[in-house]
Predict the 3D structure of the following.
Amino acid sequence: MTKKTSNQRDKKTPVTSATGNHPLKSASIEKVNNSQLTDTRKTEHKSLKIRMRSLSDKMINLFKKPYRFFNKLFIISGIISWVLLIMLIVFLFGFFQSIPDFKNMTYSDLVSAGELYILDHLDDKNVQHEWIAMRDMNRELLYTIVMAEDGNFFDHKGINYDMMINALGENIKQKKLVFGASTISQQVVKNLYMGDSKRFIRKLKEIVATRRLEKYFTKNEILELYLNTAEFGPDIFGVRAASAYYFLKNAAEVNAAEAAFMALMLPSPRRYHFSIFQNKYISAQHEKKRRRILRDMAYKEYISPKQYNEYLEYEYFR
């Protein structure tokens, strides 16, 4: 009886865990806890992945920003380079197009340009200019003008670079354009084709054109152009007109002393025509230049020592 009751009690009485909880309920709670733990871990893992992705994106952007900057800079630089290249090509095309094509010119073309230059600069358009050949000039006359204006004329190829550098140094020293460095060939190009502009680009064109002139024409042709177009005073162009005006002679009769006087007019013919010729006065500076010209003539043996001494004492104003 007692045993049965005990068995019955055993059947009716549920088995409890050591903690006193119901076994099914405990298992259910454990499942819930495991599920929550799994969800928490998944959430943490997902959050970590998001943070890692965000960090990765930041690192990528960190490298992308300078890449994009330099990429844009490269593109802009390329565009600017092409624009500058096109501008340079256009500039060079215009630059060389504006330089006289001496290759396809004859000496007669240069003479015509010289006559046109003189006509444009005459105050009195009724003045008649007569072109003369070098064979009709006194040897002393033409060499004196060369010694005065360009002593190395027969040695250089149109440009005297040493003289240009020295003149540049003096101009920088004086802080203004005081000393020129133009050879006879450069003066021919400037007078006939370039004008009197002081701009650097004009000077650059003059240098290129002078080299071309020297390439296609002889020294004698260039010198003849200069001696016929150089200005010696108001409406006095060329040695023929200057010889007749200052000494009542033709160009074949003018000696070195007289030619040296004419050469004094060349840097600024209208001003020196007034200050020297009309005022009948040779300043100490101009007298020094006159003597230097005659000394160079004697040194080069274009005149004899006896002529040199005689010409030093030449009386210009009687």
Notes: Confidence is low (pLDDT under 50) at residues 1-19. Residues 23-97 form the longest helix (75 residues).
